[in-house]
Design goal:
Helix 1 runs parallel beside helix 2 and helix 1 runs parallel beside helix 7. The chain is globular, with a radius of gyration of 15 Å. It has a seven-stranded parallel sheet, sandwiched between helices. It is 47% helix and 17% strand. The longest helix has 15 residues. The chain is α/β, with parallel strands linked by helices. The mean pLDDT is 96.
């Protein structure tokens, strides 16, 4: 299966968030999955590194707009790079090319990735697939949205997301969801 991992660009190798992402990449590769990431630094690099070091295939989805804005190139653990002209095309490639997705902690970009995939599944414009959110932050964010805007997040669309406390639980949950 192709598993996209969304996550922030800030974590550094000495930080727990980077190490968790690296472990997730390894767990996914050990389960036989191809890993897709945004291809750059932070958790994208860590997941790519973990997957490649575990013998997995890593696809980096990159784009010209980010490289112009940030002066960045694909991280060294990307085996196959798929480059798109725009951030928008990159976002939809990460969503469209996966059989499942996992979101590590992140910022606005990661939230946009989660929301875009969730919205596409909610409207049936893309197939329903596992979308696992890791950490208390995402769960609290979604629960706050549901609490304050319940009419806009119908009960039927809430199970399109699942939650995991950490990367180990996320990997286990993903396997269960893919087997279902």
């Amino acid at each position: 299966m192709n598993v996209t991992v969304f996550g922030g660009s800030a974590p550094q190798p000495e930080e727990a968030a980077y190490q968790d992402a690296q472990r997730l990449g390894a767990l996914l590769a050990q389960a036989g999955h191809t890993v897709l990431t945004g291809g750059y630094m932070g958790t994208m690099e860590a997941v790519s590194r973990g997957a490649k070091e575990a013998g997995g295939h890593v696809i980096g989805i990159t784009c010209t707009e980010i490289e112009s804005w940030r002066n960045a190139k694909a991280n060294p653990w990307v085996i196959e790079e798929r480059s798109y002209p725009t951030l928008r095309e990159r976002l939809y490639a990460l969503i469209d090319d996966c059989d499942a997705a996992i979101a590590l902690p992140g910022g606005i970009g990661t939230l946009a990735e989660i929301a875009s995939m969730w919205s596409q599944m909610q409207t049936a414009s893309s197939p329903t697939r596992p979308l696992v959110l890791i950490g208390a932050g995402w769960k609290a964010t979604i629960e706050t949205m549901i609490q304050h805007l319940p009419t806009y997040v119908p009960e039927a669309h809430r199970p399109l997301l699942s939650y995991a406390a950490d990367v180990d639980e996320a990997a286990r949950n993903l396997e269960s969801l893919l087997a279902a």
